[in-house]
């Protein structure tokens, strides 16, 4: 499918396609290591805004050897304070469309996942890293500060102390280290990232929509709430999910032995 026909207007730096009930958004600027221009960031927003209601999960992939080397520094302009805040808030708005959008998002990582690239990856729900993947936050060495949500999302994954180390010393984590500290959930051989991400997305797309919605929308908020508020939100979400016709049908299938058991491969 042509990107512009099904996913809203997309810039040349992005490409989109449908695979069954999932959509794949590809960063398509390999000569620049898929560095993110403002045009590309706004294109990501357009993609998620115009997502077909029949799409149940999304994969974010990348052309070339690198997922994303971060902000395109050639676009860095001298902005006054207010303009700088507005620019950062634009990135926040777009990446929130990923984190709290309509469907779960799986990222297929490889090569550089640096700066804004790590901010983009951290906004997704499942991350698959090829062996070539490395993570860094070089803003400290460039005299700038993260602006695309890293100071909120990355510490949730790896803790404040590790992020502090990355920013102050330029420390890099490789694929295995990144999985061990929480930057990804999977590590696969080089060249296998997209296939694994699509496999996971298709599996996710087979879940009940109300469960996927609860995991994406409610789970992060419950985790941030006080225990008292969290337990109440959990009870409400559980009641909403199990009260749907879909949930009742799936439970009947399970009780009748027609559903796949947890031990099945």
Q: How would you describe the overall organization of this protein?
A:
The chain is α/β, with parallel strands linked by helices. The chain has 2 domains: 203 residues, Alpha-Beta Complex (2-enoyl-CoA Hydratase, Chain A, domain 1); 47 residues, Lyase 2-enoyl-coa Hydratase, Chain  A, domain 2. The protein is built from 11 helices and 9 strands. Strands 1-2-3-4-6-9 form a 6-stranded mixed beta sheet, sandwiched between helices. Strands 5-7-8 form a 3-stranded mixed beta sheet. Helix 2 runs parallel beside helix 3, helix 4 packs across helix 5 and helix 5 crosses helix 6. It is globular and about 55 Å long. The N terminus is likely disordered.
N-to-C SSE string, H for helix and E for strand: HEEHEHEEHEEHHEHEHHHH
Average pLDDT over all residues:
90
Q: Beta-strand level of the residues, as a percent range?
A: 5-15%
Strand order in the sheet with the most strands = 1-2-3-4-6-9
The strand count comes to 9
Rounded to an integer, what's the Rg over CA atoms?
19 Å
Distance between the termini: 32 Å
Q: Could you give me the name of the CATH homologous superfamily of the largest domain?
A: 2-enoyl-CoA Hydratase, Chain A, domain 1
């Amino acid at each position: 499918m042509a990107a512009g026909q099904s996913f809203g207007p997309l810039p040349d730096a992005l490409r989109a396609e449908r695979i069954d009930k999932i959509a794949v958004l590809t960063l398509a600027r390999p000569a620049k290591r898929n560095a993110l221009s403002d045009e590309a960031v706004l294109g990501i927003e357009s993609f998620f805004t115009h997502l077909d209601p029949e799409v149940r999960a999304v994969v974010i992939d990348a052309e070339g050897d690198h997922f994303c080397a971060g902000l395109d520094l050639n676009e860095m302009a001298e902005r006054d304070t207010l303009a700088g805040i507005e620019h950062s808030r634009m990135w926040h708005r777009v990446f929130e469309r990923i984190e709290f959008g309509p469907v779960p998002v799986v990222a297929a990582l490889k090569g550089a996942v640096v700066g804004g690239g790590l901010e983009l990856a951290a906004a997704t729900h499942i991350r698959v890293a090829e062996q070539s993947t490395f993570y860094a936050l070089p803003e400290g060495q460039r005299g700038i500060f993260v602006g695309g949500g890293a100071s909120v999302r990355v510490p949730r994954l790896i803790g404040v102390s590790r992020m502090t180390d990355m920013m102050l010393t330029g420390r890099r984590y490789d694929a295995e280290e990144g999985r061990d500290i929480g930057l990804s959930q999977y590590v696969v051989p080089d060249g296998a990232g997209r296939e694994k991400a699509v496999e996971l997305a298709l599996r996710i797309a087979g879940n009940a929509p109300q469960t996927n919605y609860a995991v994406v929308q409610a789970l992060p908020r419950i985790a941030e709430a006080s225990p008292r508020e969290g337990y109440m939100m959990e009870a409400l979400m559980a009641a909403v999910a199990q009260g749907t016709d879909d949930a009742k049908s799936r439970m009947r299938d399970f009780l009748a032995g027609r559903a796949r058991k947890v031990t099945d491969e």
